[in-house]
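Progress report, Aim 2. The chain analyzed during this reporting quarter is listed below.
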Amino acid sequence: MDQILNQIGELVLGAVPTMLLFIFLVIAYSLLVRRPLERMLAERRARTTGAVEKARDAISAAEARTAEYEERMRQARAEIFAAREARLKQWTQERDTVLSQARAATSQRVKAGKAELEESLVAARGQIEAASAELSEQVLHAVMPEAVL
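Predicted structure tokens for the chain:
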């Protein structure tokens, strides 16, 4: 058993430089490769995350601007529609006013024409009656001799 322990002690003693070299390599790897690599990855992750957040912020800002633009478009359309309706009402009122004036003027002309026609009719009847009386006298004189009358 002594011999086995002796051999194990020699193996452990022979493995010490290998273990020290391994520990040195692990420390060197940690200092030279792993830490700079982790720093680089963290920086890359931060940049990526920052870029994604900036992109999200830009998208939300664009959506807000789009919503604002759409609201302005709705308001502009409503204003245009209201102005159009007001213009149509105004034109309708103007048309109605002009039509009523034209109707009133036409009604006055018709009344004046009727009155004039009535006067002409009365005058014509008077002339016809006068002419008829004169004509009947002439017919009477022509048909009947003067002695009978």
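Residues 2-143 form the longest helix (142 residues). The helical segments are 2-143. These observations will guide the mutagenesis work planned for the next reporting period.
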